[in-house]
């Protein structure tokens, strides 16, 4: 039962005005509702196997030569002469006998080092005496390649706000950097005695030793890989008791089965001591050891000893021995220990949270509140209405179809987004309004805390008390409180962003017991229309210690790639922070236009790692956090059911994008391990041999559609490809770039890729380009001897390069970033590069002095390479341009059909048909790939012809027609899903017979395929196929009569054959 707040502590409203009063009220709660401080430990929630004997669990080090060593130290100090001779014996005896330093120290250190430390302590005493201070500051250290020793004076239960910050230093220099090749185990003890009679401080000793693992280390997936005796440090094995080994083995087993931390608590018989044991995968969090100290100090606990053990199977286990501070007003350890366990998972996710600083402020936020503040801080950075009414008024006055006015508007938009709400200004608002942030947290927790106030597992902590005791304001009351508290419009908008966040969250893993990152499923209704004119269907916001990320989709059934946005330096990272969601939104929107012919609507995910983060780790955390929202939690204490305001099952389909091509296997296998029935379709781009994926680059899927548009231009204009000159971004190392080289026979003048720029006015050597494309190497590996005298190559690392014309290039990076604006050719094919590389601000550089474009034909293979206004300007000046949403949809089609295969085949069928046998693809696999290639070519040609025809008939720009086709098709598809056309069995079979590739129909049979796939997916596939075939045949402005005729045509088509009886 939760204790009530002492009435004498003041009213609730006034207590809210001062967090220290609230904390005081809580900590002085009526003792009648709490166990006596001297009572036996409460065991109502502690399993019997989690009550352990009162011993250390480790063998204490006993140094037999301690007395002889002390004598040698006395002799050495006497000979040095720095200490008065008559004090030497007393100082050495005090050091050896009274301070309570563990024998590990004396066994590790030399006589010379100990003598130096005793001299340092003697000097500290003299310093304290001259300052008339009762505190004795002791800081002793020694580091070597094999380990380190740190000894310092420490007050129990207090985090250090200043000074050496030993634990943070240990984290940064040893624990965070540990790997199987170089790991350090840690033992740390608090001395029993105080440093002097005048001070209550004790000594805290840290002993770090380089791990010496049992040899040989077991191979992953081998039986001994999870055996603690086969993967331990040898010293640990000699010191750990059998019971400790059994406990750690159990923890290790769980760590190897999941992504998140394993957190267990053990009671110690006959005492109030509690031991927290935490296991996790090595390297998956930083600053965790020191952050845990801040956590238990917040609840009035101190540690007598702590251990950090690393194992050669990449498992780390931390063991902390916790005790209550004597005569403390904090909640009893019997209660607070459960909250420490709950909040340790939040500390694991965000160990370095600027809003949780118990060492710096008495009235700091509790961990849950501080985590909420951190998430709201990031949310506000992305979603405060940065443009506002002034921008909208200006936008209404200007003509966005005028290139100069559009350029001005674009510059103003960029400036507003950079300067209106900075990270620092938002943080200051949060720090200046702790009471409002606390109320906003209660507003959030009141909805999403599983079980709410009736949860008997909760304990009387600050967060819990606020949830069940404090005033819970409704939306209007919160708005009113914010309006009154905010000092200006800026503060009001920041604080309102928190409320928008609360109202947008439909479900979250915030209160899931173990997690690796925080995830929030958001209703996109909060997005300002001025910035985001088309509302997405759903948004997922993911927050981790070393990254943030989004997933945006425009329909319930949607698919798109996951992109890791890398930052070259801190300035670039700052830019990426500001633009991450905008880039994600634009990518998903483009994907939605591109996905017009397939069941899935458009979606995209983005991950922004910090500068020093491991991109692979951030992806793994991102995926696991999203799965928390998709899979119903059914494991008590690990993955429990969450509050779901959405009320319906959701399935996401993820694909590869920049930086994630080799990570799709993990996502599929992890979804499978977590019990997702749709694991086969969760990701596309999986390894073909082992998971049945259809890699775009190997089979040239994206390039097939891009080539259809290039060939279509040649076909319509009667051009000979060998005579066409071309400039290409995206080099021979990439998917699109390499296949564009391999599939073309044109005269390529220039290629721009990540390594630099290469140009030859007579055409780059084709065989050399083919060699690089087959080897997937950048143009930095191009044989420069094959360039003509007028040709050149400038790499990004080069400066002051003199070109054959005499021009000097001062900066290779700057030249690479703008080189696409300087070349001229018949054809321009962007196959790679950053979004908006050509925009309204620089598009004029693509025209010569007569106003003619540098390129006659542009087929946009790379996503978002050219902005909408820039496309219109290029087309107005005469360029024939096909945008990305039309040209590069081949990969989208391939991925969709990969998803369809996973949904259509049962697990055994999938393994038999799609996985390679003896390293070779099955006949079914090869036949299915051929079907995909045929469908890609057919769809691309149909859209190319539709756009060309519409341009001839209406004179509209092709990029505009492309968007109109996509918009009309998507709208029609959504309308068809809402009709009962799908219920017409004859029409359904006729249409879906064209959706399922023939190879799949022959194996399973159409009727059975329709039964197997989810109905929502089947409806979407049906609607998309009907809409695409109708719009491509009749244009975006066709009549209802045209549609009736089209349906009649579909009904007249024969039904595909059933599967053979033996299959």
From TrEMBL:
Provide the transmembrane region boundaries. none
**Catalytic EC class:** oxidoreductase
Annotated region (Disordered) at 25-48
Low complexity bias (residue ranges): 25-44
Residues forming the Glutamate/phenylalanine/leucine/valine/L-tryptophan dehydrogenase C-terminal domain are 693-955
User: Which GO terms fall under biological process for this protein?
Assistant: L-glutamate catabolic process
- Which reactions is this enzyme annotated as catalysing? L-glutamate + NAD(+) + H2O = 2-oxoglutarate + NH4(+) + NADH + H(+)
Can you provide one Gene Ontology molecular function annotated for this UniProt record? glutamate dehydrogenase (NAD+) activity
Q: What is its EC number?
A: 1.4.1.2
* Gene3D superfamilies assigned: NAD(P)-binding Rossmann-like Domain
What the entry lists under InterPro entries is as follows: Aminoacid_DH-like_N_sf, Glu/Leu/Phe/Val/Trp_DH_C, NAD(P)-bd_dom_sf, NAD-GDH_2nd, NAD-GDH_euk, NAD-GDH_N
Name the GO cellular-component terms.
mitochondrion
Q: Which UniProt keywords apply?
A: NAD, Oxidoreductase
Per the record, the similarity remark reads:
Belongs to the Glu/Leu/Phe/Val dehydrogenases family.
Q: Which PANTHER family match?
A: GLUTAMATE DEHYDROGENASE, NAD-SPECIFIC GLUTAMATE DEHYDROGENASE
Describe the function of this protein: NAD(+)-dependent glutamate dehydrogenase which degrades glutamate to ammonia and alpha-ketoglutarate.
The name this protein goes by in its record = NAD-specific glutamate dehydrogenase
Q: Which organism is it from?
A: Ustilago hordei
Upper classification of the organism: Eukaryota, Fungi, Dikarya, Basidiomycota, Ustilaginomycotina
């Amino acid at each position: 039962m939760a204790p009530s707040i002492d009435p004498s502590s003041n009213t609730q409203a006034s207590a809210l005005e001062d967090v220290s009063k609230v904390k005081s009220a809580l900590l002085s709660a009526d003792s009648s509702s709490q166990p006596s401080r001297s009572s036996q430990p409460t065991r109502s929630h502690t399993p019997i196997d989690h009550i352990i004997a009162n011993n250390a669990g480790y063998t204490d080090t006993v140094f037999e030569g301690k007395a002889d060593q002390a004598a040698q130290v006395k002799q050495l100090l006497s000979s040095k002469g720095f200490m008065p001779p008559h004090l030497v014996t007393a100082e050495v005896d005090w050091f050896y006998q009274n301070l309570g330093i563990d024998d590990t120290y004396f066994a590790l250190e030399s006589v010379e080092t100990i003598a130096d430390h005793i001299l340092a302590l003697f000097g500290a005493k003299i310093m304290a005496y001259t300052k008339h201070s009762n505190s004795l500051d002791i800081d002793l250290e020694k580091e070597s390649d094999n380990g380190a020793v740190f000894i310092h004076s420490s007050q129990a239960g207090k985090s250090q706000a200043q000074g050496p910050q030993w634990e943070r230093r240990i984290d940064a220099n040893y624990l965070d950097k540990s790997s199987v090749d170089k790991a350090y185990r840690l033992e740390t003890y608090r001395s029993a005695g105080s440093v002097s009679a005048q001070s209550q401080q004790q000594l805290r000793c840290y002993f770090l030793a380089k791990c010496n693992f049992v040899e040989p280390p077991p191979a992953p997936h081998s039986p001994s890989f999870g055996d603690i005796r086969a993967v331990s440090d040898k010293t640990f094995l000699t010191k750990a008791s059998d019971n400790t080994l059994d406990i750690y083995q159990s923890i290790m087993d769980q760590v190897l089965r999941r992504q998140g931390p394993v957190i267990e608590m053990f009671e110690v018989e006959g005492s109030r001591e509690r031991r927290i044991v935490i296991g996790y995968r090595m390297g998956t969090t930083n600053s965790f050891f020191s952050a845990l100290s801040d956590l238990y100090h917040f609840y009035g606990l101190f540690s007598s000893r702590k251990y950090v053990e690393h194992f050669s199977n990449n498992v780390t286990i931390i063991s902390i021995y916790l005790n209550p501070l004597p005569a403390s007003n904090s909640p009893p350890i019997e209660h607070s220990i459960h909250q420490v366990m709950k909040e340790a998972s939040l500390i694991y996710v965000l160990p370095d949270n600027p809003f949780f600083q118990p060492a710096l402020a008495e009235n700091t936020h509790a961990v849950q509140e501080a985590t909420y503040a951190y998430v709201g801080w990031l949310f506000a950075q992305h979603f405060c209405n940065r443009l506002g009414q002034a921008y909208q008024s200006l936008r209404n006055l200007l003509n966005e179809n005028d290139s100069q006015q559009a350029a001005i508007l674009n510059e103003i938009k960029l400036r507003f987004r950079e300067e209106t709400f900075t990270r620092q200004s938002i943080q200051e608002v949060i720090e200046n309004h702790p009471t409002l942030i606390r109320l906003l947290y209660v507003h959030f927790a009141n909805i999403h805390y599983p079980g709410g106030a009736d949860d008997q597992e909760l304990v009387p902590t600050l967060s819990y008390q606020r949830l069940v005791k404090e005033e819970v304001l409704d939306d209007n009351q919160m708005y009113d409180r914010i309006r009154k508290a905010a000092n200006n419009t800026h503060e009001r908008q920041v604080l309102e962003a928190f409320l928008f966040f609360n109202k947008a969250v439909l479900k979250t893993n915030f209160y899931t017991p173990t997690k690796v990152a925080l995830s929030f499923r958001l209703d996109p209704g909060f997005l300002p229309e001025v910035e985001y004119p088309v509302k997405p269907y759903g948004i997922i916001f993911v927050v981790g210690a070393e990254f943030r990320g989004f997933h945006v989709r425009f329909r319930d059934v949607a698919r798109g790639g996951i992109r890791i946005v890398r930052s070259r330096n801190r300035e670039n990272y700052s830019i990426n922070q500001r633009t991450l969601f905008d880039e994600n939104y634009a990518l998903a929107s483009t994907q939605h236009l591109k996905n017009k012919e397939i069941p899935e609507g458009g979606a995209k995910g983005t991950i922004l790692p910090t500068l020093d983060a491991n991109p692979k780790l951030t992806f793994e955390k991102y995926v696991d956090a999203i799965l928390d929202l998709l899979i119903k939690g059914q494991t008590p204490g690990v993955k429990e059911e969450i509050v779901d305001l959405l009320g319906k099952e959701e399935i996401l389909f993820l694909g590869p994008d920049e930086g994630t091509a080799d990570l799709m296997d993990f996502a599929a296998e992890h979804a499978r391990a977590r019990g997702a029935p749709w694991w086969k379709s969760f990701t596309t781009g999986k390894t073909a041999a082992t998971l049945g994926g259809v890699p775009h680059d190997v089979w040239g899927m994206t390039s097939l559609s891009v080539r259809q548009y290039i060939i279509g231009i040649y076909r319509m204009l009667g051009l000979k490809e060998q005579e066409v000159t071309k400039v290409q971004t995206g080099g021979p190392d990439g998917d699109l770039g390499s296949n564009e080289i391999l599939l073309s026979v044109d005269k390529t003048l220039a290629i721009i890729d990540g390594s630099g720029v290469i140009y030859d006015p007579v055409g780059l050597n084709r065989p050399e380009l083919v060699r690089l494309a087959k080897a997937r190497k950048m143009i930095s590996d191009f044989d420069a001897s094959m360039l003509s005298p007028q040709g050149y190559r400038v790499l990004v690392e080069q400066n002051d390069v003199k070109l054959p014309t005499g021009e000097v290039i001062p900066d290779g990076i700057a030249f690479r970033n703008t080189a696409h604006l300087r070349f001229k050719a018949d054809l321009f094919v962007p196959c790679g590069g950053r979004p908006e590389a050509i925009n309204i601000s620089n598009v004029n550089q693509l025209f010569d002095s007569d106003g003619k474009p540098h390129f006659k034909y542009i087929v946009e293979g790379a996503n978002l390479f050219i902005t909408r206004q820039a496309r219109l300007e290029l087309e107005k000046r005469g360029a024939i341009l096909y945008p990305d949403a039309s040209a590069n949809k081949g990969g989208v089609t391939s991925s969709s059909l990969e998803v369809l295969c996973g949904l259509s085949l049962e697990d055994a069928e999938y393994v038999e048909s799609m996985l390679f046998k003896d390293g070779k693809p099955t006949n079914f696999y090869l036949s299915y790939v051929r079907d995909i290639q045929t469908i890609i070519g057919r769809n691309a040609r149909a859209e190319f012809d539709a756009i060309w025809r519409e341009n001839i008939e209406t004179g509209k720009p092709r990029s505009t027609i492309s968007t109109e086709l996509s918009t009309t098709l998507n709208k029609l598809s959504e309308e068809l899903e809402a009709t009962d056309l799908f219920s017409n069995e004859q029409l359904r079979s006729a249409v879906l017979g064209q959706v399922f590739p023939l190879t799949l129909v022959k194996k399973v049979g159409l009727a059975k395929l329709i039964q197997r796939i989810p109905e929502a997916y089947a409806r979407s596939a049906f609607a998309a196929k009907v809409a695409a075939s109708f719009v491509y045949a009749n244009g975006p402005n066709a009549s209802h009569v045209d549609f009736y005729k089209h349906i009649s045509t579909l009904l007249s088509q024969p039904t595909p054959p059933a599967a053979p009886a033996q299959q």
